[in-house]
Amino acid sequence: MIKAKKSLGQNFLVDKTILEKIVNITEIRNKTILEIGPGTGNLTSYILKQKPKKVFVVEKDTNLSNNLSNIFNDQLTIINNDILKIDENLISKDKVIVFGNLPYNISTEILSKWIINLKDHFWFNHLILMFQKEVADRIIAKFNTSQYGRLSILSNWKLEIEKICDIKPFSFYPKPKIDSSLLFFTPKKNFYPIKNSKNLEKITRIFFNHRRKMLKKPFNQIFNGNENVINKLNINLNLRPQNLDFNQYYQLASEYENLRS
Fold it and tell me: How many CB atoms lie within 10 A of CB 137?
C-alpha cells in the first residue's frame, strides 16, 4: 500500500463526487492535459475516462511515479521531477489544461512561479487547482479586506479566477487538518501592460512588508518621494497597502519601470 509522505505534503483526493466534479469543470475531450502531483492516480483515472488527446503528469515521488507507470502503462507521459524545477513552456507544444491537487507547503510558490514566468503567450488554457482554503481566500481576496495582499494582486493580473467549491478533510486520505478550496483560472484577453513581472513582484513585496504601516514609507523607499507619481496616480500616502486596488499596484509597477528606463 502506498503511504503518503508528510514531507511532500501528500494528501490523496479520494472523494468520487469531488473527482467527478473536477473533470467536468471544463471540456477536456481531445485536449492536452497536465496533472501536477497525481499521487495514486485517482484523479488521473477520471481524466482518462474523458478521452483527452494526451496526458502529462508531473510526480516528484519516485515510488508514486513507478506505481503510476504500472497502473496506466502507456496512457500517460510521466515526468518524475519537481514541478518547481521544470520549464512548463517545454512540456507540450499544445496549450494544456492543468489539474493540480497542489502540495500545500509549496502551492503559493508554484502559482507565483507560473505567474511571474508568464509571457504574452499563455502555455495553458485553464488551471484547475486545489489549495488550502486560507490560501485560496488570499488568491481571490478583494482590496480593503484583511486577506488581500501580494498573492491576490499577482494572481489577478493576467488571470480570471472563479472559486468552484470548498472541500472538507474527509475527501482526502490521509485527512488534512484544514479545509481546501478548488479554483478555476482562465487567462485574461486584456491585462495591464507591465514589461517585467518581477517589477510587480518587487513592488508588492516592498509594500506588503509594511502591511500595517501607512504607504509613505514603502512609497519613499521605491520612488524617493516623487510627487509626480503621487499626483499622477492620485495616491493618498496615509492609506495602508490593503487600501490600494489591483490597478493601482499595476500602475505603480509601470511607473517604476518608466523611471528606471
Answer: 19
